[in-house]
Amino acid sequence: MATVHIRRCDGPGAEPRWVSYEVPLEDRMTVLGVLDYIYENVDTSLAYYQSCRMGRCAGCFVQVNGKGVLSCETTAFDGMRVGPLENYELVRDLVVDLNKPLKKRASNDRG
Ligand code: FES
């Protein structure tokens, strides 16, 4: 068994929280496989996106330990922390609206 940490959030403006799950990590299991396992066996309220499952649609982007990755092409590992992409408007949990990139903060603007 492995422990993975998923950033959960009920939607824009809601307080995010980290939730830990025990999953039976199999050899070469992907991050998406872990999310599927959690959804199918532990918690059906987990929101995440997948479509092609082969690295083509780019819809399954998440952050793993702070790095943006395709969950269907990234090997899962014990202790990983999975969160949504930061630069897009959050819908819920790991789902963001890829059509709504967030604007840079005013402090980052250089005029
Ligand atoms: S599900 Fe399409 S790229 Fe991962």
Would you kindly provide a written description of the structure presented here, covering whatever features stand out?
By secondary structure, the protein is mainly beta. The chain has a single domain (2-108), classed as Beta-grasp domain (Ubiquitin-like (UB roll), Roll). Helix content is 10%, strand content 33%. It is built from one helix and seven strands, in the order ββαβββββ. It has a five-stranded mixed β-sheet with strand order 2-1-5-3-4, with helices on one face. A hairpin with an 8-residue loop joins strand 1 (2-8) and strand 2 (17-23). The longest helix is centred in the N-terminal third of the chain and has 11 residues, at 31-41. The protein is globular. It starts with a strand and ends in a 10-residue tail after the last strand. The structure holds FE2/S2 (inorganic) cluster. Residues 50-53, 55-60, 70, 72 line the site of FE2/S2 (inorganic) cluster (FES). The site of FE2/S2 (inorganic) cluster has 12 residues, from loops.
